[in-house]
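ok so I'm stuck.
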Amino acid sequence: MDATVSARINMMRIVLITGIIFVHVPYDPATSPYLGQFGGLDWLRVFLADSLFRIGVPCLSAISGFLLFHRGWQAFDYRKTLRTKASTILVPFLLWNTAFLVLVYAAQSRGIGFGYLPDVVNATPRDWMNLALAIETWPINIPLYFLRDLLLCLLLSPLIALAIRHYPRTVLALMLAYAVLPLPNGIFLKKSILFGFSFGVAMALHRVDIKRLDRFAAPVVAAVLAMAVALSLALYAFGPEFPAWLDMLRSLAAIAGIFGAWTLSALLIRTNAGQALARMGGLSFWIFCGHYPLLILFWMVWNRLGIADYPLFYAASPILALAILVATHSAARRFLPSLHAILTGRRIGGPKRLATEPNPPMKPAGSIAQRR
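replied:
not stuck anymore, here's the structure
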């Protein structure tokens, strides 16, 4: 894997995770986008939160599966993988989630926060285990369910890889059916994570040229965008309770979005902004783990202030959350480097220099120019 592919992966992580913020902007029944009281803004909320940025989870899962096996089956070391992922995924999950759980308990002990989050003060030991460790249900910091399911994929990775090596089409077809059809989730909280992870494993083990679609990047991105628009129109018309067929289409569209996100990276990495995003390293993980508690805090303060202008909250809260997370990430990295390393799973930074540039220099005459 050369530096350009690595840079595209780093860049797409932060783009997708920034988009996931819009999935988690809170609202109550009175401000549901499916009421249509804010006109075009409500459709835009459905488009961003329930359609377009739903591709983030399966795409991030596919990246994880690909990276785990990009050196091939022979180089895979299961014990080393588990040791490494314990520090890069498990420890950050426990720290971020437990810290938020303690803060919620402290707030609710003083009568603050009831109705916004699960009742922690009166929770049973089983509820506490779920809120802290996501054993059966969602963690208190809801987006971290992704890390929980990803850890399950890592535990099962040898079995997944062996099945993918010998029966790739059959296994992927079965996992696609599991992800899309209205089947029980089993041990996973989000079924598309297993498919995305397995898809990435298949791309790595079978040496699929992941740049094959780059020359068709613009039409592929346009097709995925059109699919997201069409899906959002159907969701807006039928929601908030979706019929089974529409829920299946939403799951299928999220998985198909993997191709759109990856081809989009081929376009963005050629820009200065894309290259800058690729060098941000641990910021994407910091944003992912920290955005939900901030959004809930903003929602509590907003309701306490009694401001009725929800469109203003929807526009301001993601921007304010990003600004705070970028600032706190920079401060932690500078003044508390050890804590920063632990909280980001030692995701310190991205590549300093990319293999490609928007306008690569010409090779001297007589040489063969090689392009990533």
